[in-house]
TrEMBL record, chains A, B:
GO molecular function terms listed in the Swiss-Prot or TrEMBL record: ATP binding; glutathione binding; glutathione synthase activity; magnesium ion binding
GO cellular component: cytosol
Domain Glutathione synthase substrate-binding: 201-304
PANTHER family named among the record's database cross-references: GLUTATHIONE SYNTHETASE
Species of origin: Zasmidium cellare ATCC 36951
UniProt family annotation: Belongs to the eukaryotic GSH synthase family.
Enzyme Commission code: 6.3.2.3
Protein name: Glutathione synthetase
Amino acid sequence: MADLKDDQVDRLVSEIHDYQITHGSLLKLVRLQEHGNPSVPCRPVSVSLLPTAFPGRLFDDALALQQSFNELYVRASNDHQWLESVLRPLLQYDEFVRVLWKIVQDTRKRGQAQPIVCGIFRSDYMVQKDSMSLKQVEMNTFSVAGACHAERAAKMHRHVQNALGIKHNGTLLESNNTSSLVESLALAHEHYEQATSHKVCVLMIVQGMNFNIADERPIEYGLVHKGIPCYRCDWYDVLSSTTLDRDGTLLFSHSFDGEHFEVSVVYYRAGYEYAEYEEDGIRIRLHLEQSRAIKCPDVLTHLMTLKIMQAALAKQGVVERYLPLDDASGVRGTFMPMQPLDGSEASQRLRQEAMAPTDGARYVVKPNLEGGGHNIFDEAVPQFLELLDREVSGGYTIMRMIEPPQDIQGLLNTGDRIYRGPVVSELGVLGTCLWRRGKEGVEILSNKAAGWTFKTKPTGVQEMNVVKGNGCFDCPLLT
Amino acid sequence: MADLKDDQVDRLVSEIHDYQITHGSLLKLVRLQEHGNPSVPCRPVSVSLLPTAFPGRLFDDALALQQSFNELYVRASNDHQWLESVLRPLLQYDEFVRVLWKIVQDTRKRGQAQPIVCGIFRSDYMVQKDSMSLKQVEMNTFSVAGACHAERAAKMHRHVQNALGIKHNGTLLESNNTSSLVESLALAHEHYEQATSHKVCVLMIVQGMNFNIADERPIEYGLVHKGIPCYRCDWYDVLSSTTLDRDGTLLFSHSFDGEHFEVSVVYYRAGYEYAEYEEDGIRIRLHLEQSRAIKCPDVLTHLMTLKIMQAALAKQGVVERYLPLDDASGVRGTFMPMQPLDGSEASQRLRQEAMAPTDGARYVVKPNLEGGGHNIFDEAVPQFLELLDREVSGGYTIMRMIEPPQDIQGLLNTGDRIYRGPVVSELGVLGTCLWRRGKEGVEILSNKAAGWTFKTKPTGVQEMNVVKGNGCFDCPLLT
C-alpha cells in the first residue's frame, strides 16, 4: 500500500477521523478550554493510517510470556527484603522513591488491612533486528494506560479495511482490551463484595483536568454495564469524598446525591507523578493504602514499575528466584543488557562499554522517573556518564538499546503531519492478576494475558508517547 | 433539580462531556482545521444538562399521527396537478423552486426509471399553551438531520441519571432512531436488490467539509453492519464517481480500489441548499434523479419540504383529499392558522390580523427557504408586510405563532453558556415510508413512525438550530 496517491491518503484520513470521532478515539483538550466557556475542544488521537507489519511468531511469543511476567513482578513485589535492598541506595536522593517507601512502611506498621491485590500490567517490547527476537523495553505495573485507545485503533483499522476495500498482506488483529480489564476489576470487586452486605463500588482515582478520559471512561462504563457501580474521584478530592472507618472500610460519598458506598476496589489512574505527592498527596495515598479496599495495585506493586526494578530483576539469578526455570528462561530471553549504575562489577563493565561502544552498539541512560522524556541517548551517553555525580548515579539505569529492523514501512498521521517512511513499533502486552499477599508468599488467584497495545513512530523519533505527540496508536498486521 | 449547586452543575457538565466524547455526540469542526494540518478539532454538540418535561399524552399523540403525515405528504407529492398549481406562482422569482421544478419536468420527459421511492421525514411540533395541544412547526421531507444526535442525547441522559443517581419526576425515553432509519434504507435496498444480480450499494450523497458527520456516519455503519455496503459520495463528486448506464443503472466507482457497485438507494444528505445548484448542481441532481436507483427521496418528495407546501396543505379541504376523514382531522388539529401570501381571500384575512394583532396573537412570516434563520417575527411583521413587494409576496408564508407554555424550566449547556431558566422544546417525530408511484396513485409498501428528536432552547431565542448554536439536543421527561 506504499503506492497510495495523495487523494487516497486524504480519503483515508477523513474516513479514519470520522470513525474516531464517532467511536471515542479522542483526546479531550481540557487545557485549551476557554475560561468560563462550558464547551470543551477535543481531537482524534494520533493513529497510523495503515496497520504496520509485525512478525506473527513474536506477537504470539509476547502473549505467551505475559503470565510469567505477571507472576515475576507479583512475587518480587512480595519479597520485602529484596525490594528494600534495591531501593535503599535511592532513598537518599530520589524524593519519589522515598515518599512511596515511607507509605509502604507506614502501611506495614498499621498491619495489612487487605491481603488481596489486583494488578493491571503492560510489558512493552520491540523487535531486535539481528536475532529477530522480542526485547523488553519496560514493564509498567501502575496506572497503565492505552488499553482503550489500542482497542479503538484496532477496530478502526478493521472498519477502514472493509469500508475502503483495502487488501492487506497479513492478518489484522482484533482486540478486547477494555472488557479484559473490566473483567479483572470485576473479579476483584466480587472478592470484596462477598465479605460485606453494604452497597459497594469501584473507585477510579483520576487526575483532574484529564485529557485522556477516552482511555478511562470505557472501563467505568464497562463495569456499570455489568451492574457494578464505578465512580471517578479526583486525586485531590480523595480526602473530602472518602472516609476511613475504624476497621479500615473505605466509604465513598457520592458528591451528587450524597449516597454512601463501601469501596471494593481502588483503581489508580492517578498518583504516578511525583508532583502529585507534594501538598496533600502523601496523606491521600496513605489514606487509600491503609483501607480495606482492594488496591489496583498497592504501593508495593507500584514500586515495581520503577526502572531500577527492571534492571534489578535482570541481574543474574533474580528471575530464577521467583519463577520455574523454564518460565525464567523465556522471560530472561527478552532482557537487553541492563544495569543500575550502582558501582557493582557488572555495572562498571556495562558503563565501560557505553563509554566506548564497540560493534555499533548503542546505549540509553534512563533516570528512575515515570513517563519517559528524560532519557539520554547514543552520542550523549559518554559525556553524560563522565559528568554524572557518583552520589546520584544509582538513580540511573544504563541499558543497551534495542535495534529494531530498519526496513518496516509505515503511513502515520502524527497529528501535525502525514508521515510515510520507515517506522519502529512497540508492542505492549496487557496482563491482569489477582493475588493474596501472605508471609509465606503470594497465592495467585487469577493470572491472565489480557490483550495488547501497539504503537508506531517514525524511525529516528526517540520517545514513544502518543498523547504527547510522539508516535501513533496502531494495529499489528501479522506477517 | 432546579436547586443544583454550582459544583453539581460542573460535575454534570464534565460527566456529560465525557459521555459525548466517548459516544460520538460531537461536531467535527472542519472549518477550524488549520491548512495542511492533518488533525481536526471537534467539540461536543450542545445538549441539555437535564431532560426537559414534556406532556406524555402529547408525545403519544405525535407518534400516533406520524403515519398519517407520511401518507399525506406521499400522496400529495404524487398529485402533479396540485403540486404544479401550488408552485406555479413561485416559479417567476424563486430560483430554487424553478431549478427543482425543471428537474421534475426533465425527469418526467425521460420516463420514470424507478417507481419506488423511499422517504425519511420529520414532523416538528411545539405545545400550544392555551389548549395544551400539539401544533406543527414544520414538516421536513428532505435530507432530514438530527436522528443520531437525538438518540445519543437520550442515551446520555439515561447514563447520567444512573451514574449520578438523579431522581426524575417523570419517565426518560429511549431512542432507536438510527436503527429505524437503517431499517428503512435496508428495505429500499432489498427491493432494488431483488431485481439485479450485480453487487449493489447504498450511496449517501453528502456535503463536503461536513461538520455534522456524527449525524450521518452511524447510519452508514449501521447498514454496513447489516452486510449492506454503503458509501459516501460528495455532492460535487457525483459526476466523476458515478456513471449512468443506457438503462438508467447508476454505477458507483469506489475511489479507493476502483471496484464498481450498482447503486440501489441514493440517500440524500446534500442538495438541500440553493447554493448547491449553482455550477454543476443541476446536472448532478438530474443525473441522480434519472437513474434506476431508489431515491431517498425523489425530487417530487423534496418539493414537499418547502414551507409553501405546508401552507397549501393547510387550506380548506386539501388534507381531506388525501386522507380518510378520521386521519385528516387528527392531522388538521395540529395546524396553526397559516396562509401563503398569495392574495387569496383567506390569505388577506390573515395578513390583516397580523398587521394589527388582537388578543395577544403573534405572527411569523417565513420565506420559502430551507434551514430557518430567515424568518420575521412579532413586532417586525407589520412593517415587513407593509414593505413587502406584491410581486414576491407569494414566496412568503404567514403563520400564527405557536405560544408554548412559559413555565417549563430547563438547564442547558448551549456551548457558550450554562442556561438555567424557562425553556421551549420542539418535538420532532421521525417517519419512514416506502412507496410505488403510479398513474393511478401511490401504493404504500411501508409506513412507520421511526423515532423522535427533541430540542430545547431558552425562551426568547427565536430559531431552533442546534448545530448553529441555538438550542440543545435534549430528551423529553414524560409527565
